[in-house]
Each structure stands twice: as structure tokens, then as C-alpha cells.
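Researcher: I'd like a candidate sequence for this fold, 180 residues long. If you have to choose between options at a position, lean toward the conservative one.
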């Protein structure tokens, strides 16, 4: 049976979960900690920010930025990256995203240069952005997946560039200060 969408029930990114993802039972709570517990299986469920990774790819005093092909923030500047998959190390996540979006291999400095909580999309979902400095170790970058175009920018371009998320400007400035 096909279910028609009939309404848009309010559900903010900080509202507690209402049903147990394991068995579908209506959850109790939430408790003051924010966890909502399942009377059937006893598990507690929490809303958490989703970790996302981004790479500032540097080369000769310039950094690679992408133009977003899709909403949210379509047409604005971004860094290559995306949401981590379950169990994935952040540095591995950025290597995977660079393959998908640009077709390149990355050498990633594993020490983050940015940690920024921010909201994403029309519902304001909370994201924790983790930024890394990286270099291309193989391939020529070509836009693919959700990237419309790529550009190389220098520190002089940073003040006027139209970034979807302001913290990307900071991450690029930090990455270019350690230029090589
Ligand atoms: Zn349950």
C-alpha cells in the first residue's frame, strides 16, 4: 500500500525521538538528560549533532573551494566533504568524499584545523563540522556528485567570497597560514 503524505508534523532537530528505532514502541520521557527511553527494550535514544568533515585542499598558497550543485545553499561556496558514515574515521571520511566529489586522492593532516557546530538545511539540523588540511596526492580535481564547479582561491579572495557556511572562511585562512 502506498502511503500519501498528508501533513508535515512539527519535529525540530532538538525534539526528542518519539518511537524506538529498534522496535517501534512509543518512547517515554525525555529525562532531564535528553534521553527518551523505551519501555519495551529499555534502550535510551538521544538527539545528537551529525558529524561532517571538510577538507581545505592547499596547493601553492591557494585553496580549493567547490560550488554547491544542490540545496541547501545551492550555488554558494563550500569545501569538499560531507557527512561521516557510521563507524568511519573522520580522516577516512574526507578521503572518501574527495574521491566522490572531485575524483582525487588526498593526503590528510589528521590534526583538525576547525571544529564548528552549525545548523544545516531548512529544519536547522545540528551538525558538528570538522575541518582538515589536505593536499592532492593523485589525480586532477573534476567536479562530480553534488559539486557544480571548483575554484582555487587565495587569501586575498577570502573576504569577498560567498561561502554557504562562515566557518569555511576561517578554516581556509587557517590552512593557508600554514602554506607550503
Ligand atoms: Zn525499544
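Model: Candidate sequence:
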Amino acid at each position: 500500500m502506498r502511503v500519501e503524505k498528508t501533513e508535515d508534523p512539527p519535529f525540530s532537530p532538538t525534539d526528542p525521538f518519539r518511537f524506538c528505532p529498534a522496535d517501534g514502541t512509543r518512547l517515554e520521557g525525555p529525562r532531564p538528560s535528553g534521553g527518551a527511553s523505551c519501555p519495551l527494550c529499555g534502550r535510551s535514544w538521544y538527539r545528537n549533532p551529525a558529524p561532517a568533515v571538510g577538507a581545505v585542499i592547499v596547493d601553492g598558497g591557494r585553496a580549493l573551494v567547490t560550488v554547491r550543485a544542490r540545496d541547501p545553499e545551492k550555488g554558494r561556496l563550500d569545501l569538499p566533504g560531507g557527512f561521516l558514515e557510521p563507524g568511519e574515521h573522520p580522516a577516512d571520511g574526507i578521503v572518501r568524499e574527495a574521491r566522490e566529489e572531485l575524483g582525487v586522492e588526498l593526503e590528510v593532516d589528521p590534526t583538525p584545523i576547525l571544529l564548528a557546530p552549525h545548523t544545516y538545511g531548512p529544519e536547522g539540523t545540528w551538525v558538528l563540522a570538522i575541518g582538515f588540511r589536505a593536499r592532492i596526492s593523485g589525480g586532477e580535481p573534476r567536479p562530480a556528485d553534488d559539486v557544480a564547479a571548483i575554484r582555487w582561491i587565495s587569501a586575498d579572495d577570502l573576504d569577498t567570497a560567498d561561502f554557504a557556511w562562515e566557518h569555511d572562511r576561517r578554516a581556509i585562512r587557517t590552512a593557508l597560514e600554514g602554506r607550503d
